[in-house]
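Standup, Tuesday
Yesterday: got the pipeline producing structure tokens again.
Today: sanity-check two examples.
Blockers: none.

Example 1:
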Amino acid sequence: MKILFYLPVVTPWWFDRIVAPLIDRLAVEAEVHVMVPPLWCGTGITPDQLAGVAAADRVEWHILDDEDQPRLRRGGGDFDGLLDRVRSIDPDLALCRSADLETPRRFPCPVRHMMEAAFPPFPSRAEWLVLREDPFDHCVMPELDSAAKDILHAGFDELWSAMRRKVSAQTPDRGLADQRGSGAETLLVSLPLEYEHEENFFGIHRPYADNAALVSALAEAVDDDVQLAVTDHPLNLLHCDRAALDEVVARYAGRVRLVSPRRRKDQPTLGVVTASDGMIVSNSKVISIAAFLGKPVLRLSNHATGPWLNAYSDLPAFLGGIRGGAPSAPSQEQAKTFFAFHAANNIIDPIHEDTDGRLILDMVESPVDRRRWSAGIRRYAESCPELAL
């Protein structure tokens, strides 16, 4: 068997902590090829990354170092030479870290995108990943019969209840609570922003050029009875110039409020969504917070959303549903099934002692397999002691 890792937008951190362990495990099961560019705009690798792969001598390396390699990050080219190289390898499977989705679709084999496994508000580890056919299909799950749902709920029930108690016990944002009390007719809509550092080329799939443009467009579109409660991505606070966002927030002070962390490592999005009437989101994984809380969702994206979220795609319909008092909202029974299924069936911990090449391949060949569920939930529970009863 031949496995191709195609990695045009992998960061050195992602390679060291996630991809290298996967290569080492899969090299036991298959012939491994790695296509990756040199470091540019925070993506690609250096010789340090090669040195961190234990199985490096058994891997066929294809360093994409020609003058065209920066364009691989965004796509938009025919990349015929690259595709010829892929065809010459003739892989049985491609594991991708690529913001350009069109080029991997032309590969002569099944393709899976390696994406972060976070599903807030449940805790997760930064090294965990999931394998997806489309990287931004959020809260999607297969049809499950009642017996499968019973298995998932039974195994996940204590974790679900623990998270319910944890969220219920959180201290509410007094500023938001006071504001809601000052005007019963005011609609509070949470707007969590996405990471927009230059290394995050996945931003090409967002409907607006940047976060400032998104906030400005929505502030122009809503009426005075709507306030957008904006929370920024934690990494934007550390690494990005936020001057344009601050200017937009100041310009629309009556309709936009930026809710900032009060302490280091504080992440206020959960509290803001809890206090809100609904959430507007594009491709961020925090959509699962709205799912957990049963909040109406407006999703601005061309990618699939789990039907059970009952998500809106139109702003007037979304706001009209909230104003009418009976908006479409996520099914809570289905939410419990989704979170249990994600933990039981989908998460890959690349450094866990139980993770070997055969397990990874099984998750591709059998995307849904209840034989994995008990061990999956056990690994998840052991890795998240903060949810212990």
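Example 2:
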Amino acid sequence: MKKDKKEKREIRDILLGKSILTEDGRLTSKDPGTILMPQGVVDGAGAVHLFGISGKDYRYETGLAEDALAEQVNQSMRNLGRALSLREQPEAAACLIRYALTGPAVLVFRCAEGGPVLTVWTARGLMGSITRRRAVGAFERTMPEDFRPAAVQTKETGKRKNRGTAPNGEPGPGETGEEAETTQQEDSQV
């Protein structure tokens, strides 16, 4: 639990612009106890202060070996934005993308037990969801063709859907009464 809070705090600091440049050209979050003076307006910092941050996971499938995948992801991250060196997640590949109209996004890629996972962190709100979609689309365009989103698994509820009828049992818009009657007869026989 504490580690999750530390990881989230680190991402929040980066989105607020509280980061430093390392010798190799990567950004990293400030050391604990270090005080940074703000130097002008940081894109999206107001939304992060007011609404907080949100992250969303995207799972992928690929036929690439883990080493080849790591190299491809690192190359993709360097092409998308400024590479990040995360203190709380040193094994993850990460980058900061700044968009002019919608604010910044932090992409964190790691290989989990379920397969490759991309987490996109943005400020909460409408512009955050737009930024998230832009960042995921840009990331997917830079990856090879056999790298694709994983199929979403849904749980069976055991309930039958109300096919062809409105909630009150009448035919839905654009449907004939015969189709609705046969659906209702099938439901009553079950």
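Quick observation on example 2: The beta strands are 19-21, 27-29, 53-61, 82-84, 93-99, 103-112, 115-123, 148-149. The mean pLDDT is 79.
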